[in-house]
Design a protein that fits this description.
By secondary structure, this protein is of the alpha/beta class. The chain is 53% helix and 13% strand. The two termini are 24 Å apart. InterPro entries: TPM_dom.
């Protein structure tokens, strides 16, 4: 049991999320997702969670495991071309995870997603949360544009663009 992690999660709450992501940042992130989705047929969601509850902490639930749960809860997998992507931030750990549906994940692969996550975490370590998320959205969008470019029909927005605060 990692007591340091437990303490960090106990003392990271909704106020930390509001400080890192004020309303203007959330609006900018929503706009970045909407803009990105004009160039491809994929779907991007961003979710931030302040900290894990005690039971998942005691069970040593990883950010990756939690991200997969959130991917399912937000139904990011429920897209026509299986090309939904979740960018998940566990704020207490400053850990970013990208969970991609099978249609895009098979084309991009784990290493490229990890590179995007580490670049975002570099921004976060410097206190640049908004720019870190927007940079990640652009990088994910670039992969989606390569493999699922927008067609003449324009495509429909299958998932909401607004950031989710858990």
């Amino acid at each position: 049991m990692d007591f340091t992690r437990i303490l960090r999660h106990l003392f990271t709450g909704p106020l930390a999320v509001r400080k890192a992501f004020p309303a203007t940042a959330l609006t900018a992130i929503e706009y970045a997702i909407a803009q990105s989705e004009f160039s491809h047929r994929g779907e991007i969601r961003f979710a931030v969670e302040a900290a894990l509850d005690m039971l998942p902490l005691v069970r040593a639930t990883s950010a990756r495991e939690r991200a997969v749960e959130v991917f399912s809860q937000l139904r990011v997998w429920d897209t026509e071309h299986n090309n939904g992507v979740l960018i998940y931030l566990l704020l207490a750990d400053h850990n970013v995870e990208i969970v991609a549906d099978r249609g895009i994940d098979a084309k991009v692969g784990h290493e490229k997603w990890e590179t995007i996550c580490r670049e975002m975490e570099t921004h976060f370590s410097q206190g640049q949360f908004e720019s870190g998320v927007i940079s990640g959205i652009r990088s994910v969008g670039g992969h989606l544009q390569t493999h699922f470019p927008a067609g003449r029909e324009g495509g429909k927005n299958e998932l909401p663009d607004w950031p989710v605060i858990i």
